[in-house]
Each structure stands twice: as C-alpha cells, then as structure tokens.
User: Fold this.
Amino acid sequence: MRSVRFPSLAAVVAAAGIGLAGCASSPPATEAESSPPAAESSGRSGAAATIQQAAQRTESEQTARIRLEAAISANDQEMTTTGEAIVDFDNGAAEGSITADVSGQTQTMSIRQVDGTTYLQMPAVADKWITSPTAIPGITDTDPATLFQNFDNVADFAEVGPEDVEGVATTHYSGSLDLASALSASGLSGADKKQAEQELAKVKGKAPIDVWVDDEGRIIKLVQSVTVDNGDGGLATQSSSVLFTDFGVAVDVSAPDPADIVDPGQLGSDLGAPPGN
Assistant:
C-alpha cells in the first residue's frame, strides 16, 4: 500500500473561508459590521446575501451543539474524522470529543477550548491533557459570522429548494468558491500570502459548498469540499460536513487542572520513546 501524502490546506482554508475557517476568539463585530449590506449594493446574488445574513443570525444564538464529519482521501487511503462539541460563538469556549480514523487505526480524544487554548486528552496520556498548537477544524474554530466573511463576489450561490435535515425544515443553497478571488480579497500579505498561493496552485477547479438554512434564518448544515494535486501525480479530496443543533445550549467549560497538563514535548519520553518518534 502506498503511503498517504495528505495535503497541507491550512493556507487555502485561511484565505478562502473553507473548511469552516473562522476565529471563535475574534473581537465582536461593531453594529456597522454586524448589519449585512443589501444584496443590490454589495454585488452579491440574493442567495449569497441570504447565506451571509444566516451566518450572522446563527451567531446571534451565541451557543450551539456542533457535529462534524470530515474526510481526506488520497492514494486509495482515507482519513476520517467525526466529532461533537458544545461551542460558545462569543468567547470560543468549547467542549466535546473527536475521533480520527487513519487507514483503520482509530483514536478518540476529548477536547476543551478555554481562553483561546485548545486542550486534548487521548489514550496516550491516560487521564492527562496536552495543549494543541492549533484549533480543531470544524469544532473549536467555528464562528458562524466569519464563515462567509470572504464570500463577497466569489460565491455563486443559488437556491436549490426545501429539504428536511434530521427533522428540521430547511432551504438548501448550493454554490462554489473561486479560491483565487477569495485569496485576492483576503488581505493576506508577505509569507502568509506566498504560502496561500503555493497551496492554491494545487487546487483543481472551484470548491463546492452547500448550505441549509432553517425557517428562522439559521444555518443548520454546511458541506464543503476541495480537490488538490497530491504532489505525486494523484489527487486528494478534503470534504467536511457540519451540523448545528441545540441552539442556546449551556456552555460552561473550564481549563484542566494545571497538575493534569503534560508538556507535549515530553510526551514521547513519557511513553518510553524519544520525543518526536
């Protein structure tokens, strides 16, 4: 079996808003920023304006339960991730669990995010916690109001029609992102822009995106995908599906006891192997 070379899409995600790009710890929007411009004046289609308004309406609920399903496939191998968490859109607090399966090897982790720091608890550290250098995509980096912040003039949304999503009546919208336009509008510069351009060069075509909005104007489901050159003549596809439920759920998350947090750099030696192995 050939080894998987899963692509690094972080720069593209950051630039284009795909993969649930957002920053739960971002400062609250001002009144002017939180009021969506009219579709006629923004140049967006009516459907695109509706989606951006739905993102802001969803954030106004302040909290929700989020269920994630994601996959990256390449070279006939696949890495899948499933997770569920309660999330506070205002301060970024989150608590839940996530399970990753890479070619049949499965690992489940508990997750917490408090004051911008993500903590992971996994079998390798028993009942201890380690800090994560990055947020957990789709779980601890989810702020609905920023999901579509880069979509002006880069999303060709159209209404598909009414659909039921796990018993909730919704309207389905479908479209795609022009990632090159999103990058141009992202405001990135210097090394960040160069990295994003390098990743963008690997992308094949546009990035499909589907959104389901309920009768109260809230995002209930979001599905996205992108296909890239895997670097060895093959293609890799990253896809994700996020479901929002239980709006207004109580979120009361605290950081682990400092005595229960171990240094990730010492993790290898704690397991009887040199760090980094």
In short: Residues 1-43, 269-277 have pLDDT under 50 and may be disordered.
